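Sequence only, no structure available. Ideas?
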Amino acid sequence: MKKYLIILATLLTILSCNDDFLERPPLDTLTNENFWQSEAHLVSAANALYTAMNGKDLLNMFESMGETAPWAITTAYRTIGGGNYSTDISQINNIWVRAYYNIGRCNYFLNNYKRAVTVSENIRERYAAEAYFFRAYDYWILTTLFGDVPYITEELNVYSPDVYRGRDPKQTIINNIAADLENTYLNLPAFIAPASAQFGRISQGAALT
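Reply:
I predicted one. Tokens follow.
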């Protein structure tokens, strides 16, 4: 009996000195702690970035600003195109918020993808190049519509100084995103065959464009 009491006392002493076991991430749920382990994780995170693509909606938006576009679903963009608008038009705020939401996703990816140490560097950098593309794409939209905007390249929280920063010059942003694409486009596939499993993903041609 005495032996068991000693063992119990020893265990209690050990557990009282180290409670790290209480803070372990769950093993049956994906979290930031157990994500970024495999190529499948990288692909999944990169896939989420593709929601940034506006497709025909972007063309419709610019076209509907013209006076010859009465077919537009909403007259807001025609009002913007005519210069008769105020900042309470929701379309203006939506473009800004959506772009920075997507940029935040890209920054999150770029700050974490190298944690997938079991994945080859070529594969890691291929998907990082996609993130650089989408970040550049959203900054292109922002600078095209707003000119100078805040240039954010890190993950933000409420304590981040960049939350309160002013706007950066448009030309500085253009230079930075152009440099990002020039430095990473070779990590993308040179060509993606139509109807292939990879069709629709970003290629070198898209980044160069």
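The chain is about 55% helix and 0% strand.
Hope that gets you unstuck.
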